[in-house]
């Protein structure tokens, strides 16, 4: 029967399971991985990398008139069209990859710290995100000194709080209107 859980299927070796039991076991393992700290961290890093790449590509495409700074050619517009396009696409790829790495790294660090805090506290509330934002912001800016770490902590914590509050308000029950009794 489709969709029923067979407890004996988990005890069987994978090769002896039916195709349906293998699919169920695979889906169960995938869900377990996605709910684990390493899974959440990997997904946040991958999502951040993708989003950062897209954002970097968009921002790089807006900077279309960039001087080269060499002695022989003073400005990119003095080059032949084919060479201009090659330089612009190379620059777009470089900026996109750089942005992707940064977003992926921040997403990975934040998610890993938040999951670790949630595991240690054994609670799922807004304070996990606020603490993770503070630790992430401070950790990313600590090389610039204690004042920068404090500002990074405050900035990331405030942003994390705003996002958490917004997401929690979206999942709340809608307000009553005149037609509700």
From TrEMBL:
Entry keywords, A to Z: Membrane, Mitochondrion, Mitochondrion inner membrane, Protein transport, Translocation, Transmembrane, Transmembrane helix, Transport
UniProt-annotated location(s): Mitochondrion inner membrane
Highest rank taxon of the organism: Eukaryota
Transmembrane segments: 42-64
Membrane topology recorded in Swiss-Prot or TrEMBL: Multi-pass membrane protein
Self-association and partners: Component of the TIM22 complex.
Family: Belongs to the Tim17/Tim22/Tim23 family.
Function: Essential core component of the TIM22 complex, a complex that mediates the import and insertion of multi-pass transmembrane proteins into the mitochondrial inner membrane. In the TIM22 complex, it constitutes the voltage-activated and signal-gated channel. Forms a twin-pore translocase that uses the membrane potential as external driving force in 2 voltage-dependent steps.
Name of the protein: Mitochondrial import inner membrane translocase subunit TIM22
Natural source organism: [Candida] anglica
Phylogenetic classification of the source organism: Eukaryota, Fungi, Dikarya, Ascomycota, Saccharomycotina
Gene giving rise to this polypeptide: TIM22
């Amino acid at each position: 029967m489709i969709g029923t859980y067979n407890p004996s299927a988990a005890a069987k070796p994978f090769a002896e399971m039916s195709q349906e039991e293998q699919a169920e076991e695979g889906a169960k393992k995938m869900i377990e991985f996605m709910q684990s700290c390493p899974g959440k961290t990997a997904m946040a890093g991958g999502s951040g990398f993708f989003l950062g790449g897209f954002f970097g590509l968009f921002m790089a495409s807006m900077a279309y008139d960039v001087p080269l700074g060499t002695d022989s050619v003073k400005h990119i517009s003095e080059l032949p069209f084919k060479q201009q396009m090659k330089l612009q696409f190379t620059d777009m790829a470089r900026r996109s990859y750089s942005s992707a790495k940064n977003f992926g790294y921040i997403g990975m660090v934040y998610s890993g710290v938040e999951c670790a805090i949630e595991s240690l506290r054994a609670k799922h509330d807004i304070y996990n995100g606020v603490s993770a934002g503070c630790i992430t912001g401070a950790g990313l800016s600590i090389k610039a000194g204690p004042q920068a770490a404090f500002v990074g902590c405050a900035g990331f914590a405030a942003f994390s709080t705003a996002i958490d509050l917004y997401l929690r308000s979206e999942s709340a029950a809608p307000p009553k209107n005149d037609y509700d009794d």
